[in-house]
Design a protein that fits this description.
heterodimer, A: alpha+beta, Alpha-Beta Plaits, 2 domains, 5-stranded antiparallel beta sheet, 4-stranded antiparallel beta sheet, B: 587 residues, Rossmann fold, 6-stranded parallel beta sheet, 35% helix
């Protein structure tokens, strides 16, 4: 099954190697990894997606915590969450084919962020399937994709209470996050 | 050198903040952490540190190969429970430490390795003797650091010591560039204190776990305690003993757990696993409850996991959350320091009558337990088991025995009965040949008043025999017993059992060990018959300095019983015929 881990790690040289090395040692392939600054000073937040057995989740989380530079680990598992990916797509486009691509971009609620005589660049944010959808349609419409760059998944739990929020508020470290708040928000997918 | 005068030791004030070189800060910090002994080998990138060493009250043992340094630090830690420290230079000095670091990692030994590295200006340029040692040791250290500023040395070493000695202990490496050693910084030991230790966030005893465990223990008909290395690391010997005695539960031990529960105790079953006695493994397979204390269900103790103790509920008391359900699925996990968990569990345990189960186990020992190897007719052959047995008897079991890896290691575990923790020092997890001699030097350095014996095979001994010179230079009184069978014995045994006696690359030509010892100025003698054993052992013990005994044992003897790798715990190869090489604990 797919596991999604969100971890806060110290923003220091070599930390990513330590995290990656753990998965290498367990012979688990990391299918997606996104890292960037977090709301906590000096800490980076990473979202890591991997395919492993259902039982592996506990051990991976416990092993991540054993890394000295890892401060907090959340196993998102099946908890309600928002997951997004960013894609930049450079497509060959002449004056003749441009308008057709503009229409597709409109339908997918993506944006054109660069335009030249022979090509244009599309920026798109969304769930994985939405991005896959646009790529597929572009290919089906005989558009030549020159470059494709995807960020990998970023995940955040829905609702106010997450284990990391509790910890940041100084609550006792707890394995289980509180019951998820009922959220009226529905993902704005189409 | 051990000859250093202590009057030199007060040159550096540790109490008030002082301006020191990075090199001096290394030693000042170590001294502040209570380190009194280090094992190392100098070289270009660590020379500034060596230059400053004479100002500090720290004894340095010069090794002959850096692998020896890491094994000595390891043996020092295992014998004393204190932090062991190894020092090496950059490049090959650092890489030579690795086998010793991995050995300590697999057996959870608190160890600090300090390596020099090239100047930070040329770091990453493939400079002379440069190697990315933090990168290389990443998977075999609990953590490691690269330091390139003098002002970071004290805080990093203190943090490293905290990591190495806390939670589940392990080796930590601190790599310090040469320019950081040469620069100066204000040394303030107090200010360099690490943040308070943060226990693993998943350490906790499940709600109701203690009650559940207590209920399981009270209602069990056939319980067995499995005691591992964690009992010793956590200092939970008394608590395990109280649990066993109060609830009348027999105790089986892992190799690294030997000594955590007295061998002579009536509830002690002995060692479990691949070379454990049949009744121990049968008791585990027939048990209805296993109480695993500070052990990790290693493949050498479980055999095939899918057929391991199928009728038993399992309680796992363990300090490392990543060990829970790793190899064997357990019913109750009490994740925390073993001693603390047992202290909480014990008030919930009432007296219990274990009579029937204990009798059943006793009966399964059958005739094998009452036969005594000393009653074997002297056939003119010398068996390693005899040597171990006699060594145990003559030393009263009071010596620290440091073994290498292989057949002799298993015979030691079977025939030398350990009453106290930290009296058996052996590489269990990594199974590192060449461990014994250097680790014994470390053990003797830590415990100078204890009798220390090296027990090694002719193969493993040659891997690190260069350290013979170290014991002479450092005037270390250890006794060495080489169990010499002219083979890489354990590998030969596997070839005999599983490779149709194809003894490829296992017959071993060795030097004349007596002459080798003599070349070092170490007295030695060879022993060929059972009759000479006792006298030879006594001669070694009464010698003022080190002494080497070369026991020429039966060449193609095997360790029994044996569970072939991948077999179930009860599917063992038993001793052939009526070979009664089994010992009664009352003997």
């Amino acid at each position: 099954m797919l596991h999604t881990f969100v971890a806060y790690v110290e923003d220091l040289p070599g930390v990513l190697t330590r995290v990656a090395s753990l998965f290498r040692r367990l012979n688990i392939n990391i299918s997606s990894l996104t890292v960037g600054r977090s709301e906590r000073p000096g800490l980076s937040r990473l979202t890591l997606v991997c395919d492993a057995s259902a039982e592996a989740g506990h051990r991976i989380r416990a092993s991540l915590y054993k890394l000295e530079n890892v401060v907090d680990v959340d196993d998102i598992a099946q908890a309600p969450n928002v997951t997004r990916e960013l894609a930049l797509i450079k497509v060959a486009a002449s004056t003749k084919t441009r308008s057709q691509i503009f229409e597709l971009v409109e339908v997918f609620r993506a944006r054109i962020v660069d335009l030249t005589a022979e090509s244009l660049m599309i920026e798109m944010t969304g769930v994985e399937s939405k991005i896959e959808g646009l790529i597929e349609i572009l290919r089906a419409s005989d558009c030549r994709i020159l470059e494709l760059c995807r960020s990998g998944k970023m995940t955040m739990r829905r609702g106010h209470h997450t284990s990391s929020v509790l910890k940041a508020m100084g609550a006792k470290g707890d394995e289980k996050p509180l019951e998820e708040e009922e959220t009226a928000a529905v993902e704005a997918e189409f | 050198m051990g000859s250093k005068k202590h009057s030199q030791s007060s040159n550096v004030q540790l109490t008030a903040p002082t301006r020191l070189t990075g090199a001096e800060i290394i030693w000042a910090t170590l001294a502040g952490e209570g380190v009194t002994d280090v094992f190392g080998y100098p070289g270009g990138a660590i020379l500034p540190a060596y230059d400053a060493l004479r100002k500090f009250p720290i004894r340095h043992t010069l090794v002959r190969h850096e692998q020896g340094a890491s094994h000595m630090a390891d043996g020092y830690a295992r014998a004393s429970g204190k932090l062991g420290v190894a020092i090496a230079t950059s490049g090959p000095g650092a890489t030579n430490l690795i086998t010793g670091i991995a050995t300590a990692m697999l057996d959870s030994i608190p160890m600090l390795c300090i390596t020099g590295n090239v100047s930070s200006k040329v770091l990453g340029t493939d400079a002379f003797q440069e190697v990315d040692i933090t990168g290389i040791t990443l998977p075999v250290t609990k953590h490691n650091f690269l330091v390139n500023r003098a002002e970071d040395i004290a805080s990093t070493i203190r943090h490293a010591v905290q990591i190495a000695t806390s939670g589940r202990p392990g080796p930590v490496l601190v790599d310090i560039t040469k320019d950081a050693q040469q620069a100066t910084a204000l040394f303030d030991f107090e200010a360099a204190k690490p943040k308070p230790y943060r226990p693993h966030p998943m350490l906790r005893v499940e709600a109701g776990g203690l009650e559940q465990a207590a209920d399981l223990i009270c209602s069990a008909k056939r319980p067995v305690i499995l005691a591992g290395h964690g009992v010793i690391e956590s200092g939970a010997m008394e608590q395990v003993r109280t649990l066993a005695e109060r609830a009348q539960i027999p105790v089986a031990l892992t190799l690294l757990g030997l000594g955590s529960f007295p061998a002579s105790h009536p509830l002690n079953l002995g060692m479990m696993g691949m070379h454990g006695e049949a009744w121990v493994n049968h008791a585990i397979q027939e048990a209805d409850l296993l109480i695993a204390c500070g052990m990790r269900f290693d493949d050498r103790v479980t055999g095939k996991t899918s057929s391991y103790a199928l009728n038993a509920k399992k309680i796992h008391i363990e300090v490392d959350p990543a060990e829970i359900n790793k190899n064997i699925k357990v019913d109750v996990a009490l994740v925390g320091d073993l001693r603390a968990v047992l202290e909480e569990l014990l008030p919930r345990i009432a007296g219990r009558d274990g009579g029937t189960w204990l009798q059943t186990i006793d009966q399964s020992k059958g005739a094998s337990s009452v036969r005594d190897i000393k009653n074997l007719p002297d056939s003119g052959h010398l068996y390693a088991a005899h040597v171990m047995h006699d060594l145990w008897r003559i030393t009263g079991g009071n010596a620290i025995v440091v073994t290498d890896v292989g057949q002799h290691q298993m015979w030691e575990a079977q025939y030398f009965h350990h009453e106290k923790p930290r009296t058996l020092i052996t590489s269990g997890g990594l199974g590192t040949m060449g461990f014994a001699l250097p680790a014994a030097i470390g053990a003797k350095t830590a415990c100078p008043d204890q009798e220390v014996w090296v027990v090694a095979g002719d193969g493993g001994f040659q891997m690190t025999s260069a350290e013979l010179a170290t014991i002479v230079q450092e005037k270390i009184k250890i006794n060495i017993a080489i169990i010499n069978n002219g083979y890489l014995g354990m590998v030969r045994q596997w070839q005999e059992f599983f490779y149709e006696r194809n003894y490829e690359a296992t017959p071993l030509v060795s030097p004349d060990f007596v002459k080798l010892a003599d070349a070092h100025g170490i007295p030695a003698r060879s022993v060929h018959t059972r009759g000479e054993v006792a006298e030879a052992v006594q001669e070694a013990r009464s010698a003022k300095g080190p002494f080497l005994l070369n026991f020429m044992v039966e060449k193609e003897d095997s360790v029994y019983p044996m569970i072939p790798a991948g077999n179930a715990l009860h599917e063992m190869i038993r001793r052939p015929g009526q070979n009664p090489l089994v010992e009664s604990v009352n003997d």
